[in-house]
Amino acid sequence: MNRPVQLLLLGLLLYASAAVAQSAALPQPAALPIEVTAQQLEADQQQRQAIFSGKVVAKQGDITLYCDRLVVYSLPKQDQVDRLEASGNVRVIQLDRTATADRAVYRQRQGTLVLYGHAKVHQGQNLVSGDEITVYLRENRSVVKSGDGRRVKAVLFPAKPQGQEPK
User: Fold this and answer.
1) Total domain count for the chain?
2) What is the pTM of this model?
3) What's the domain range around 67?
4) 98-120 pLDDT, tens per residue?
5) Do the domain assignments include residue 116?
6) Are 54 and 154 within 8 A, CB to CB?
7) Residue 64 falls inside a structural domain
8) Does residue 165 belong to any structural domain of this protein?
9) Where residue 141 falls among pLDDT bands split at 50, 70, 90?
10) How much is the average pLDDT of 120-147?
11) CA 95-111-121 angle, 5° bins
């Protein structure tokens, strides 16, 4: 493979990683409240978890999470969220970015969001997909993986210069 092609592929890979990291990003712990609505809530103080089920919608700032079931785990002896586990028709939307997967786990202390199963991230026409997408929110980077002979996929459209009209 010649050098210009290698550089182009590297550039596309870096662009895709940045798009994924920005698109699936959940907010860092902030003063913004999290509003969760669902058809049912089951709270278990001993297990330090709250289970929301049935058309779950969680909002914080400009980010909205949709799923069938959301389990919120708290840290022992603290009033702090450890992780969120979303399952069933998971969709995260922030501005023009959408991430979808079968399941997602957000770990607050580690600052990671992992999308599992048919994971995809869209921003405009751009798309990155794989079996698993890990977004390192504090590092603004991501890793996309696929297994069992499958491959990751990135479809990236070049940005149009401003003022240029489509032909």
Assistant:
1) 1
2) 0.74
3) 3-155
4) 999 999 998 878 888 899 999 99
5) yes
6) no
7) yes
8) no
9) confident
10) 90
11) 40
In this predicted structure, what is the pLDDT of residue 127?
A: 94
Q: Which of 130, 124, 90 is nearest to 106 (CA)?
A: 90
Handedness of CA 81, 59, 130, 117 (dihedral sign): positive
CATH number of the domain enclosing 107 = 2.60.450.10
For residue 32, the 8-state DSSP code is S
Angle at 134 between CA 129 and CA 139, to 5 degrees: 120
Would you call 130 helix, strand, or coil by DSSP? Answer: strand
Residue 147 burial by Cβ neighbours in a 10 Å radius (0-12, 13-18, 19+): exposed
Q: With respect to residue 166, please indicate whether it lies within any of the assigned structural domains.
A: no
CB under 8 Å to 75, separation ≥6 — which residues?
48, 81, 82
If phi over 0 gives left and psi between -120 and 50 gives alpha, with beta otherwise, what is residue 133?
beta
